Amino acid sequence: MAKVFKKGVLGSMAIVLMLSGFLVACSKNEGGSAATTSPSGSNSPSPSKEPEKPAKIRVSLWDRANAPEGQNLGNNPIIKYVIDETKKIGLDVEFVSLPRAQESEKLNVWMASGEAPDVILTYSMDTIFKYAEQGGLWELDSYLAKYPDLIKNNKKALDQVGMYKGKRYAIPALKANTYAGPNMKIRKDWLDALGMKIPTTNEELYQVLKAFKEKDPGNVGKDKVIPWAIPAINQSMKAFFFGPMFGFGVNMDGPSNQFYAPDGNYKNGVFTSAVATPEGKAYYQRMNKLYKEGLISKEFVTDVSSQQFTQQVNSGVAGFVDSNDAPWTMTANTRKSVPTANWVPVEPFKRADGSQVMTVVGDYAMFVAVPKSSKNPDVVMKYLNWMVEPKNLATVQSGIEGVNWKNDGGVRVQIDPETNKKSTWVSASGDLAIVQQGVAPYNKEQLIKSVAATYPDDKQREEYANSYLTFYDIFKKFGKPNTVIDSPRPVAQKTVAAIEKHLYEGISKVIISTDFEKTYSEMVAGWERAGGKDYDKEISDAYKTMKK
């Protein structure tokens, strides 16, 4: 359960890039880049009346550029199911593509022009705050009250977040399995070949990475080994800096950010962003050292879509990562190239004082909001309420029952995993099931059942189940939810876009710099010019009010 300090609303798991001085327009209802338009349909309330047209609803759906060949939002069986079934309750659903890597910019354009879909999505609480403060979102309390099933399904999330100045402006998706989040993983097969143990500190990690580079335990070629794989630092990066940075003593004491790293330390009543802390500097200096020694991806700055990172993992040349992926997912992908590959989770690194720190996701995920340009917010609530019905939720999460999966004692067992990849990609990241992400964590027996079709061998199923149970245990033992700042932050609204843009570029430059001290000083100076100190003061003041 996230630690929430009620003061009006929620903080953020991810702060979205914002346009300075941005004003929300509330004029138009139609527009945007539609991926497909659903066919028209009708329901007749009585023979004596003209058929009523279904109520139009345009729903954002993130485009992660991962559609299989021949598939898109207009050609997918799960999308068709949603469109067809919602017609039965008088809705005409149209999905509108929202590029994940440009989420912030696209939302700002939509909201400024009044062309936003009826359903907009974000992981950023501050984005909700901004649009609510500008009068760009519908208040949803009275509309939500009509749908008790939706309230019941999402109660844990609704109790924590979605409010602004005492009024509800967002419906948070429920996070059914909280044993997930940023985590370090390492190639256990490489460690075994070298006779080394899983590292427990940053210094041990350094020694392991050097051994990976110098001894090439995977026999991939010394010129090909990527001891630590990372992609370009940007909003949609697939690898993070949480684990190693926590190990250096940087905390997640602030409202989180879009940089995918611990955001800073709160000491003696003062919050300081990671970039300006001694612990943060020590971490960046270590990354600079690793880069110079060839221990991290040499061309990471140009890997803006994480394609190179994905290839390094899947082809078996990478030895260590920090990402959101479960270890078994990476093991399965790498084994297509290297059958003996074995990715295992790494416990949080021990700090100088012996403590171990890591975050765990809260009971909420993305936020669903309704722009004022939408004509009928009740239609959105009706759509969300339709989705919490068990059959509909299972379909948008896992595909068509009897086609993509079968029910085995409450466990959804895939029928043909390879075929499913071509049709269930649209729901793989939880982007379609916007009321609930995932299902409650399975026990060992359920985990084994769930992969009966994927792994016919008993030994493989056992390995799969044990991998996930070990993964879950680390989060149970060490994971702590982020603090939620649920009060307005006007300074952040004005400065965060400039700060994050500067850090994306600045930290990359620091890592590859030939003169660390000079480049680091320039980065901190630029952070200050972008409003970094004012940003930190606002957080400090908010905590004083909250009596943190």
TrEMBL record:
Gene3D superfamilies xrefs: Periplasmic binding protein-like II
Xref: PANTHER family: ARABINOSE-BINDING PROTEIN-RELATED, DIACETYLCHITOBIOSE BINDING PROTEIN DASA
Highest rank taxon of the organism: Bacteria
Protein name per the record: Extracellular solute-binding protein
Compositionally skewed regions (Low complexity) per UniProt: 33-47
Keywords: Signal
Disordered as annotated region, ranges: 33-54
Alphabetical list of Pfam families matching this protein: SBP_bac_1 (PF01547)
Signal peptide (residue range): 1-25
